[in-house]
Structures are given as structure tokens and as C-alpha cells.
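thought: fold this chain, then report.
action: predict
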Amino acid sequence: MLDDLVELFLAEGFAVFTLDELARRLHCSKSTLYAVAGSKEQLVVAAVRRFFARATVAVESRAAEPAGAGDRIEAYLLAVSEQLRPAGPAFFADLAAFPPAAEVYARNTRTAARRVQELVSAGVAAGTLRPAHASFVGAAVTEVMSAIHAGRIAAATDLDDAAAYAELAALVVAGLHRS
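observation:
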């Protein structure tokens, strides 16, 4: 049921729903919803956590496939893009407006940025990426990811979060390519 809730929230957001409406849409009782979480707010946070937990597993799995560091970075950021693609504008607007859910997204963004920095460090150390200051690249990626998360990239470019991550992947990989 929590996965169905995630899909509903991704498609339509969560602010507009009452528990009665959620129970009706999910074909369950309110007591079933209360068994998952004690309030609508806690249900939202549980669903957002589930979404990002599933996304993290898929992203890490995808990033583990390529052998080269540049390919791994690209795979990682493109997988982030793919995982965010089903989330509609209402979901992101509701995330931004609800601090507990926004914190889940922010925490996930920080973790993803650290992971990109680790991938850059490994590639530079292995000599498969051009010599670069991995901490700087990580800090720059963190800033862009934070701007994506905060909606500043969408406001400046009309790119949704998924498209912005795809562009970030292309930029980082091109910038680190060994000539």
C-alpha cells in the first residue's frame, strides 16, 4: 500500500488529499492508513522516505554497472534523473512547502552529492579522469543539486528536476573527460 501511495503522490502531489480521500483512492480504510502512520503528515513523510529509499537502491545499482569512473558518474546522475522523472510538479511543490518532506529530499540530495564526490575522487586517483580537485567538483555538484532541489534551476531554466540532473551529468562528465 505504501508503494501505491508513493505513486499517487508522485503523480498528483500530497497537499490536496485528506485521509478520507487517500483511503478512497487506495481502496482501503482509514484505519489501514493509520496502521502505516499516525497522521497524514507522518504518512506523507513515510511515503517520501519510501520513494527516496527505492530511488537510492536503483541509482546505486545503475552506477555500479559501468567500469570507468566517468561512465559511473554519468550513470549515477542519469539514474537520479530517471528516478525523479515520474514526480510531477505538484509533488515537488508540495515537497518544498512541507518542511519534514523537504528535509528528506535535502538529506537525499546531500548524500547524492557526496556520492558524486566519491566517484570523482576514485576516478582521479585511478587516472581515468583528468586531474581535478574532487572536493571542488563535489562542492560544485552539491550547489547545483541544492539549486535543483530548491527549485532555483527550474525557475531559471524551465528544466524540471529530472532534466536538470541529466544536464548536470553531461556537464560533469564532459568537464572531467581526460583529453
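thought: worth noting. Residues 99-126 form the longest helix (28 residues).
final: C-alpha cells above.
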